[in-house]
Design brief:
Elements lengths: L2 H22 L4 H18 L2 H6 L6 E4 L5 H11 L38 H14 L6 E6 L6 H12 L5 E7 L2 E2 L2 E2 H4 L5 H7 L3 E6 L3 H8 L64 E6 L22 H15 L1
Parallel strand pairs: 1-2, 2-3, 3-7, 6-7
Antiparallel strand pairs: 4-5
Helix pairs in contact: 1-2, 1-4, 1-10, 2-4, 2-9, 5-6
Length: 326
């Protein structure tokens, strides 16, 4: 799928999130907006959605460790047909299955999450189980950067390296903000690439709002050592990224600017592209993002971690997103 179309899809799903949160009077706009491009690249490109819809035993698994951003996942699921579109109107309502944190009552959800710091441990267990069953499916875990202060994350990281879980991919939504403020003021995380490498992981970085860059980071082919961070295109993404760990040297600083346009190059499917380049090592992808991405009202403001827009804010956010969604 063309990178520009993936970008438009992500903005449309952000509009769905806005509607859900406004109608429900609760939700997590900031983190949902920052991780949406990542979710779209995973579900529309990297993973085989047909297998997920069919609950095929060979399907890739996804765990939303930052479970408070469930509305972003629901928006994607509704567009793919995993849940009815009209169900989004029940988000956070009494008796709904679309709670503020995902549960396994929702088709497609592989693990109930919400207590931060546990998703990677679940992913380790899933990856071990799949390997024991002789299955080549991958396990993707999306984490917020704030939850990396949890010790359980690093216990899981050690275990993943010890057991050589090279079908496990951890993606960090590096928006540098959490509910209490800047991550570097609350519990400094840098240098994340060096931390993960010290724990035995391969590391890559990408622009978390550029689908071409994200898809390139999700692909893995040792034949090309051109590097991934800041990639402008991902045509034939199986050969678009660099040698293991090369991208980590860019660090994980914030994305320059708030609305960088996605590359217009075609993005072919990454399904099946992860191969021998990282044999024996799990992969960490540090996605540089902006909290509240998509509107000047919400971008890069910690207060939008858990805030409902006023009527005036709602209209402005909606106008900003509609202008980008096309």
């Amino acid at each position: 799928m063309d990178a520009s179309e993936l970008k438009r899809i992500a903005h449309r799903r952000r509009l769905d999130v806005l509607e859900m949160v406004k109608a429900a009077g609760t939700g997590h706009i900031g983190g949902s907006m920052s991780c949406m491009d990542i979710l779209v690249c995973l579900y529309y490109e990297a993973m085989d959605a047909r297998k997920i819809l069919a609950r095929d035993e060979g399907r890739d698994r996804f765990i939303l460790s930052k479970g408070h951003c469930a509305e972003a996942l629901y928006a994607v699921y509704a567009d793919l047909g995993l849940i009815p579109k009209e169900a989004l109107g029940t988000y956070a309502a009494f008796g709904t299955i679309l709670a503020e944190h995902p549960s396994m009552k929702v088709s497609g959800v592989e693990a109930a999450t919400g207590a931060l710091g546990h998703g990677l441990s679940i992913g380790v267990g899933m990856a071990l189980g799949l390997r024991a069953d002789g299955r080549r499916a991958r396990v993707y875990v999306l984490m917020g950067d704030g939850e990396l202060a949890e010790g359980s994350v690093w216990e899981a990281a050690m275990s993943a390296a010890k057991y050589g879980l090279d079908r496990l991919v951890a993606i960090i939504d590096r928006n540098r903000l959490q509910i209490s403020g800047d991550t570097e003021d609350i519990m400094p995380l840098e240098s994340l690439p060096e931390k993960f490498r010290a724990f035995g992981w391969d590391v890559r970085a990408c622009d978390g709002h550029d689908p071409a860059s994200i898809c390139a980071a999700l692909a893995w082919n040792s034949a090309d050592a051109s590097g991934v961070a800041g990639a402008a295109s991902a045509t034939g993404v199986a050969g678009a990224i660099g040698a293991a760990g090369a991208a980590g040297a860019t660090g994980a600083t914030g994305v320059a600017g708030a609305s960088g346009a996605a590359g217009t190059a075609g993005v072919t499917s990454t399904a099946g592209a992860i191969g021998a380049a990282g044999a024996g090592r799990p992969l960490a992808i540090i996605a540089r993002t902006i909290k509240g991405y998509g509107s000047k009202v919400t971008e890069n403001k910690a207060g939008w971690h858990h805030l409902v827009p006023s009527d005036e804010e709602y209209r402005q956010i909606k106008a900003d997103l509609e202008a980008k969604a096309g």
